[in-house]
Amino acid sequence: MKIQRIATTPIEGMKPGTSGLRKRVTEFAQGHYLANFVQSVFNAVRPPEGFGGVTLVVGGDGRYFNAEAIQTVIRIAAANGVERLLVGAGGILSTPAASCVIRKHKAFGGLILSASHNPGGPDGDFGIKFNAANGGPAPEKITDAIYAETLAIKEIRTLDTPDIDLNQIGSHRLGDTQVEVIDPVADYVELMRELFDFPALRAKFASGLTFAFDAMHAVTGPYAHAIFERELGAPAGTVRNGTPLPDFGGHHPDPNLVHAKELLDLMMSADAPDLGAASDGDGDRNLIIGRGIFISPSDSLAMLAANAHLAPAYRNGIAGVARSMPTSGAVDRVADKLGVPCYETPTGWKFFGNLLDAGRITICGEESAGTGSNHVREKDGIWAVLLWLSILAARGQSAAEIAKEHWATYGRNYYTRHDYEGVDTSAAQGLMSALEARLRGLVGTTVGGRRVAMADNFSYTDPVDGSVSKNQGLRIVFEDGSRIVYRLSGTGTTGSTLRVYIERYEADPARLAQETQEALADLIATADELAGIRERTGRAQPDVIT
Ligand code: VG1
Ligand code: CO
C-alpha cells in the first residue's frame, strides 16, 4: 500500500492543556488541523526502532466528529507503521475503558478522542490526547514534546484508503497494519468484576436497593447498561439517557448540580432512590447524590478512601492517597487516621500516574468529580459508583448516614468551587497577575477578619521522577486553615474560565449540618475582595457553583 506524504505547515496553538488538546469542532475539522496534531504525536513518541511490533489503542466518547476523526487516526497510524490497532467498535471507548484496554493488552499507548465534559455537536468541542503504556495521560515531558513537534511539522503520512467498518467486531488489514475492532465494554466489565463483589451487589439489588444513573447521552450508557442492569440485575430504567448521541441530546455532559439538575431534583424528591449518580462525556467523572444529600466530590474522595476496604480489591487497605491541590483537605484527615501518606498534586490526572505506578498511592481524586484507583490510570466514573454501591451494601446505611458519621469522626471541610466562564482572557490574566504580585505582601496581614498564614503560586515537584511543574494556581491559606485558591481552566475553548476554590474546616459537632454556601459566605466575600473579581471580570455572580 502506498504511503502518501502530504506537505503541511505548523499550526499555532496546539499546546495540550489539562487533559489533551481541546478546540471547537469547527477548528479541528478545518484543513490539516487534526492530521497535523496526530502526526505530531507520532513524531514525538516514535521509538528509535519505529512502530513495528507496537500495539496502539484508539477510541473516543462518540461525540460529533468522532467517527471521521477516528478514520483519520487509523490511516495516519498505519502510514506511520504501527503494527496493530485496537479500536473500540463504533469508535467508542470511555476514557477509563481505554486505559484498561491499554494496560490489559500491553499496548504502547493510545489515542483518546474526547473533549470530556465540554459541550458537543457541530458548534461544540472536540479533543484528543495521547495516553502512555501505563494507560495514563502522557506526562508533561511528552505533551511538551508533542507541542514542539506541532511547531516543526512538515509532512503528514497517511494512506488513501476507504473507511474501515467500525460497526462490526472483527479484523481488517490496512497495509502492514492489523486493525482489530473490539468490544469496547468487555475488558472493562471483566476488570470491574475482579474489583467488586458482583454477586453481593446483585443480591442487594434483588432485595430492594434502588439506584438511578444518568449517562447524560454520553459514553457511559453502554457500560452502565451492561454493569448495573445486566450484571447486577438493577431494573431496566435504572440507567437514564443511556444512548450515546453525537450532540449529547443537546445537553452539556458535565455531571454537576447545574447540568444534572434532573437527577438532583429526583434525589431531593419523595421518590428518591437510595443512590443517584451521573457521569460525563467520556465516562471518567462521577456525581454522587444520596437520598436528600449531595456528596461533594472532595468529600466523596475522603469517604471512599475511608471505606475502600469494604470492597474486595482494597480489602487489605490502601498504600496512600493523593488529591489535586484545589481539592479539599477532607481526604488528608482520612490518610492521617489510616497512617498512610497523602500527596498534593497539580490539577489533572496526569500527575497521579507516577505515584500510582510507584505503588505510593491506591486511591486519588479531584474536586471536579474525578475519583479513581490503581486499577487503571484515569479517573473512573463507573468505578466510583460501584465503590459507593459496595459501601452502601456493606454498611447497610444510607449515604446521608455515612456522610454524617464521617463528619462526626473527621470534622467537615466545607467546600465550594465558583466558576466564571467565558471571561475576557486579558481580564482573567490581569486578575491573576495582579493577585500574584500581591501574594508575598499578604502574608501576616488580615483580610476579611482572617490572618493570612501562607500565600503562593503552587509549584509541584514529582517525588518519583523529580520533575517540576510551576504556576499551578494561586493559593491563600489563613491561620485557621481556611483557604482560597484561584486558577484559570486548562480545558476550555472560549475565552477564559476563572475557577475559585473556597474551603473552611469545621470541627464543632454542633455546626456540621450547615448549608455550604452559607457556611462559606464570609470567605466567598473575601475571595471577591482579594482578587477584585466583580470589578475585573464585570461579573456579579459565578456561572456555575459546585
Ligand atoms: C478540569 C478540572 C480538572 C480535570 C480536568 C479534566 O480542568 O478542573 O480537575 O482533571 O478538567 O477533566 P481545568 O483545567 O478546566 O480546571 V475531564 O473529565 O474534562 O477529562
Ligand atoms: Co471527562
UniProtKB/TrEMBL annotation:
Q: Which CDD domains match?
A: PGM1 (cd03085)
Give every Alpha-D-phosphohexomutase alpha/beta/alpha domain span: 14-155, 187-289, 298-410
| Protein's recorded name | phosphoglucomutase (alpha-D-glucose-1,6-bisphosphate-dependent)
Q: What Pfam families does the record tag this protein with?
A: PGM1_C_vert_fung, PGM_PMM_I, PGM_PMM_II, PGM_PMM_III
Q: State the similarity comment.
A: Belongs to the phosphohexose mutase family.
Classification via NCBIfam families? PRK07564.1-1
Output the InterPro entries linked to this UniProt entry: A-D-PHexomutase_a/b/a-I (IPR005844), A-D-PHexomutase_a/b/a-I/II/III (IPR016055), A-D-PHexomutase_a/b/a-II (IPR005845), A-D-PHexomutase_a/b/a-III (IPR005846), A-D-PHexomutase_C_sf (IPR036900), A-D-PHexomutase_CS (IPR016066), Alpha-D-phosphohexomutase_SF (IPR005841), PGM (IPR045244)
Reaction(s) catalysed (UniProt annotation): alpha-D-glucose 1-phosphate = alpha-D-glucose 6-phosphate
Q: What is its EC number?
A: 5.4.2.2
| Biological classification of the source | Bacteria, Pseudomonadati, Pseudomonadota, Alphaproteobacteria, Hyphomicrobiales
Q: Which UniProt keywords apply?
A: Carbohydrate metabolism, Glucose metabolism, Isomerase, Magnesium, Metal-binding, Phosphoprotein
What general EC class does the enzyme of this chain belong to?
A: isomerase
Q: Name one GO biological process term.
A: glucose metabolic process
